[in-house]
Amino acid sequence: MKQLLFIVSIILSGHNLSKLQSAKPKISFLIAEREYQTIISIPEFAESKLAKDYRLAFCHAENEGNQRHILNNSEEIANADLLFVSIRRRAFSKETMHAISKHISSGKSVIGIRTASHAFQLRKEKLLDGHQEWPEWDSERDYSVISKIPPLLLCTLFCKMSHCHLRLLLPFIETRPCQRHPNLC
Fold first, then answer.
1. Can you give the residue ranges of every domain in the chain?
2. Protein fold of 26-180
3. DSSP state, 20?
């Protein structure tokens, strides 16, 4: 009987923990670039500075070949409160691109760091079947103010920040030289 009560209490406490976890806002990190190696630095930063207050999900793509246009774990975009974008020159599947676009058009938050310039615009590569580009992603950016900015300075901030999760990140944001979208909260 004691064993049964112990098992039931573990199940119930796990259930309550699950409820607490889902109450925290969720940040989905979209990482697909090779120059700055943000696949290493961003998860380290997020786990050490954000995991206590946010649920974290990491979506990533390979650095080379056609696999670089497949965002692994992209199902984590749909229920994110905030997308953190570190992508450069990729063209993901239409389904993935639709999920990103839907997140933004619904007014949810997006943070893009310097690596997110030309995130969804290929340079010389051929577009894969079933994939798409999004050259308008950062068409309003003025890159004349950019100098050599380390990748973890959260400098290219853009979106309709109707759900402003940015406050938690403010201590980590370097503001010079920085671009901000006019709709930033």
1. 26-180
2. Rossmann fold (3.40.50)
3. H
